[in-house]
Amino acid sequence: MLFPLLINHGAPPDETHPAYNHAASCAGFCSACGREHTLAAGLAHAECTALMNLLHAHDTVDMLSAEPDPLLSLDYLRGEARGQMFGVLVCRTPQGAYGTLRAFSGQYNGIWSVPGWVPPIPDVQEFDALVRQDDPPIRELSRRIADLDAAPHPACACTDGHGTEASGNSAHETRKQLTDQRKALSQQAMRRVFSLYRLRNFRGQCAVLHDILPTGKGAPTGTGDCCAPKLLHYAALHGFTPLGLAEFYWGRKNRSGTRQHGSFYTACTEKCGLILGFMLCGLASPAGPKSVTQGTNDADTP
Ligand SMILES: [Zn+2]
Ligand SMILES: [Zn+2]
Description:
By secondary structure, the protein is an alpha+beta fold. The protein has helices spanning 44-58, 75-78, 124-150, 163-194, 209-212, 227-238, 272-279, 292-298; strands at residues 6-7, 21-30, 35-42, 84-92, 98-104, 198-200, 206-208, 241-250, 264-265. The longest helix has 32 residues, at 163-194. It starts with 5 loop residues before the first strand and ends with a helix. The protein binds zinc ion (ZN) (2 copies).
């Protein structure tokens, strides 16, 4: 795996740059601090535009390979799977250099890791092993439920006149047992998968995804797989300081039409909103080489 940080040259971006975008591109409520943490887009839009140009020119996400994997062609985003989110994080290294990290959301055509892109948060081998172990019994239950649904309404062999209702009830009971069992297994499997997401933040803390969810709340499948958490986790793990983040959609527009080719979007609230408060914790706010506002906010005097 090639190191995914692309080092930029020239002056590091700061908040005084005319193109600096102060709008928050991702946010989440941090229960430890009792407030929302945000990260601005900063100069990440320009880096996204550069990435869009590269995608356009290479027509693959396997841009560093001499012989790109056909599975990683952009044909995938034009087909039935439709488009996907891409993201860029501008950050500063502990040595003071600055560069950009790039991510695609989730897997790309079933592939987790592609050179030049940040890896997923969980260990891929552990993830695949869990799925191999947990999926078959869930699929078996789904098959049995489908069989029940496809069967003709249970006929009654009894002669007491109540049999039809009784066996109808028992089919209903069986179905309910199976769906309850499937629900319990799915929840267990989900919890086990989420235990592989050991999230880092900028306070040097590490927490399992499940433990940072608001009390009593579950998280949707795929939480932690969007670009923002992948990028922030990688940055925190390697001691990089985020300076700006932006995400855009690339490919055939999604079915509901809420995602359009080449448009920018802020991090999602339904998944990322649950974990970004923890993940952004410890970042100077707003992010920048010098946190100008921190001093002025604290001192309420001229
Ligand atoms: Zn998201
Ligand atoms: Zn916090």
